[in-house]
């Protein structure tokens, strides 16, 4: 079984920070935000095994894959030789086509 390194782009890291802040604003709870970010981080980390999942979106970017998380967020990533690069992590309702830098 092959294992891949998983790396978050600076944009994906920013997405997580903004998601956390948004959850704190809506729920008034750091614990709720921390728990959600921990779950999504664990999900993203699981891409280290069998990362060729999700919907392929070659029309947007060659090799781009999008996978949903708990029906509340979408993760956009590409699988390279030994690494999975997470490009963006967007909350439900945001569109990838306009936000992913090619």
From TrEMBL:
It comes from the Bacteria. Keywords: Toxin-antitoxin system. InterPro entries: RelE/ParE_toxin (IPR007712), RelE/ParE_toxin_dom_sf (IPR035093). This is Plasmid stabilization protein.
């Amino acid at each position: 079984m092959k294992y891949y390194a998983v790396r978050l782009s600076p944009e994906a890291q920013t997405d997580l920070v903004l998601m956390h802040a948004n959850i704190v604003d809506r729920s008034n709870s750091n614990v709720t935000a921390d728990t959600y970010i921990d779950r999504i981080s664990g999900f993203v980390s699981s891409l280290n095994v069998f990362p060729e999942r999700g919907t392929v979106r070659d029309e947007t970017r060659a090799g781009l894959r999008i996978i949903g998380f708990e029906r509340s967020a979408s993760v956009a990533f590409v699988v390279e030789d030994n690494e999975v690069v997470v490009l963006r992590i967007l909350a439900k309702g945001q569109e990838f086509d306009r936000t992913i830098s090619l």
